[in-house]
Amino acid sequence: MTASLARICRHPIKAIGFEELAEAVLTPGAALPEDRRWAVAHADCRLPEGGGWARKINFLRGVSGPDLMAISARLAADGSLTLTHPRAAAITLNPDLPHDAARLIDWLRPLWPAGRAAPDRVVHVPGQAMTDWPDPFVSVLNVASLRALGARMGRDLSIHRWRGNLWIEGLEPWQEFDLIGHEITIGPARLRIDQRITRCKATTVNPETGQADADTLAALKTGFGHQDFGVYATVIAGGRIACGDTVTL
Questions:
Q1: How many domains does the structure of the chain reveal?
Q2: pLDDT of 163-178, one tens digit each?
Q3: How far is CA 53 from the centre of its chain?
Q4: Are 239 and 24 in contact (CB under 8 A)?
């Protein structure tokens, strides 16, 4: 198998903003740097005492607030984060600073459904990405699978519906599932493919508009017999990766 790394994406705040990168440094046993560094807990959250990883149900998510899916992000080297949305003024802040965390909560309130528990606080756990699993996974997705699903639905689908990290070009559709239990190299890095990713209704939302406009789950189920898209991987050997790097089994 020979393929290439097509796109690198990170999401500095869980479910709130996507960002594309030209390169990234992978570290063994760690998530993509700065991916899900923060999460925003809602007023009904039940976070573990003493901190640590918490289940996704405690946080704002695109499945509950579709407008969040249309937020884009840009994280600067100084820790400042700029968020934009088609129906909100851009904001630049550092979520680690209490004043800026409060500004973030205020900015999110109009984008969050009024009938749900309100945005309440920013959560950051040093050394722990606030991903859906406590494991330090990096998600790997297949451009050909996206095209196959889009063809089934008769439309183009944005990569940002899926909130993935590494997009590979050059595989056969759904070949990523055959890689489970195997290792791949991307440039100098080596990753072990561990498990499939089962998807939720957040993927039905258009990341340009924040509106649900494509039943991706039904198309996956009827067309391919599952509701999975992409795989989780563990970094075994690290290094700097960049778009265009060769991917090999």
A1: 2
A2: 999 999 999 999 999 9
A3: 16
A4: no
